[in-house]
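If your schedule permits, I should be very grateful for your opinion on a structural question. Thank you for your consideration; the sequence and its tokens are set out here:

===
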Amino acid sequence: MSSTTRRALVAGSAVAAIAAALGVDRRAYAQAGTRLRAFWWGNPDRDKRTRAALDAYKAKAGTDISAEALGWGDYWTKLGTQTAGGNAPDLIQMDYRYLFEYARRDTLLPLDKMSPKPLDLGTFADAARDCGKVDGKLYGVTLGTNSKAMVYDTAMFEKVGVKALDPNWTWDDFARIAGEISKIKPAKYWGSGDNSRWEQGFEHYLNQRGKWLYTPEGKAAFTRDDVTAWFDLWDKLRKSGAVAPAEIGASNTGAIDQYEISRGTAAMSFANSNQIVAFQGISKSKLAISVFPNEKGAASGHYIKPAMMMSVSAKSKAPEEAARIINFLVNEPDGVKALGIERGVPPSSIAQGLLTADLDDLGKLQLNYVSAVTKVAVALPPPPPKGAGEIEKLLQRVADSVAFGRASVKDGAAQFFTEVESILARA
């Protein structure tokens, strides 16, 4: 045996001994020197938490992880470009609306086909685990669950005599409360932001009426009349002064700091329950969350959604190591505690147990909200089909056109519905 070989064996034995002493998985430790890329969309708090979790994994396993984050809109543009160029990051934060499209283009790796299995989802509820499956294969692991929610400024509500929102409140209640708040600072502050341009808001409106946005076959599950009713609802609210005018609504890019409640122009904004952490992080006022307004006797419209998933690129050169990182994030104390519940309520009972004792008021608010919504939730809708991203942007453009008065409610609804059918036909 050469002296070089002998030294290598000694060094290898030393590494193994250290790993054993520290309780480090030898397979993971053997990945030291591996460089992976992780990419997600988010906000400053999410960025901080995710980087802390990835740093904790690097300290354990020695894997070098290059981390990058962007806002929602820029994220999907860059991810699409990188994926098309064969240069996708190893770890990809994935949304339910895009999971099926990316998986069926063979750009994601089936995580349940790896051997030996680097992922343990045994403590996930069936629904939380299965929401990451496409055609029977697991392509995404959800990092948290949430539901749509209305974020509101409690102090502004108290000014009009509303100390807490009734979970059975109606659209008429919404119009009345928003109208009263708008009178506090006329033409400067409104009761609510304009939700007409938010696709998830329209979807929720349909869910309350027993409908879906899309069929399982990828067709429109709504009618032109549904779109007309949706645009008409918000047109009347704008004209009454209850919600912010067109120029305010059109400037909402979807980034947390661009919502009306964050910019100090409205007391209510429609979002997702896990986003309360980010909203509160930039607000000087105390915020709370509520279910959406509804009609008496109608279905809640709320469903439990996989807030964000983590997937592995089919082009990853170290897929098993990437999967072990996901396992670390959802199962192991250092990863779970670093992420907290900013992305939603963890789907793993182990993770929930690790976090429950240390939850702050915002954490408890989110946990209790998701628990309450779960009791009245409707079924998880079919996934958005190919072309859904284009339709999301289309709704923003047409809703803005109606809001600015460039198109009537009826004409805007006709345009949107016609173009939706065209998009889905060619997708």
Remarks:
- The chain is about 50% helix and 10% strand.
- The longest helix spans residues 3-22.
